């Protein structure tokens, strides 16, 4: 299975880059399944229903969210009308929507997609992500109930993300970090066959502070005082993420390539330029 995961879409710049490029990437890289993290797609915080539709129409098969899942209030209702949107499994117990779902991929194949929030350095404490993931993976063995499994681990600390990668090694096709918006250079296949990257990076303008127009975050760092609100930077976005090929029989990853397309970062992807 050829899977593309794209990290946090930030604002209009990120949405535009998805709308302008994803359909072409789907055919160019012959993708079977595309997952896009949409937690910052609407004004940098959360995802509206109409922007979710835009990402799905542009070629995403599934959208994951994050700690900003419900910053846009209409997502509280919308998520129950759109099964292709996944919020973190260990969000508040009363949260609407689901944290994991099995999707049909074509050719009778199935992929499990799940998202979980980490605990280290996060603003509020969430339930233990490791026991939640363990339960889920035991219920959906690869090579049995599903042909592939992708986990989006959404948190600050690279240590916690790496811990989760190894915890799932051999039990998931890919464990991919999100939330910090900066792609890490550690994409690899772990010893037992799980593709891993500590952070996929964002789909947004890198002439920014993690996707936000840089003047206000810089002012707060330099002076310790806020003057305005954070707004997404609107220059050309780099699409950042991870391309993974898996064996349909075992679910294990056979190839992994970092993806950086367009915008300011140096370019890479599964097919050499
Ligand atoms: Fe984010
Ligand atoms: Fe986040």
How would you characterize this protein structure?
The chain is an alpha/beta fold and 273 residues long. Helices cover 23% and strands 24% of the residues. It contains 6 helices and 12 strands. The chain has helices spanning 11-28, 49-57, 75-78, 129-139, 158-168, 215-223; strands at 2-6, 33-37, 62-64, 85-86, 100-106, 109-117, 148-154, 174-178, 188-189, 195-197, 239-246, 253-261. Strands 4-3-2-1-11-12 form a 6-stranded mixed sheet. Strands 5-6-7-8-10-9 form a 6-stranded mixed sheet, with helices on one face. Strand 9 (188-189) and strand 10 form a beta hairpin. The longest helix has 18 residues, at 11-28. 51% of the residues are buried. The mean pLDDT is 97. One fe (ii) ion binds next to loops.
How many strands?
A: 12
Residue runs with pLDDT of under 50 for 5 or more positions: none
Structural class call reads alpha/beta
How far the N terminus sits from the C terminus, by CA atoms, comes to 22 Å
Helix/strand order, N-terminal first: EHEHEHEEEHEHEEEHEE
Average of per-residue pLDDT values: 97
- Helix percent reads 10-25%
Bound molecules: fe (ii) ion
Strand content: 15-25%
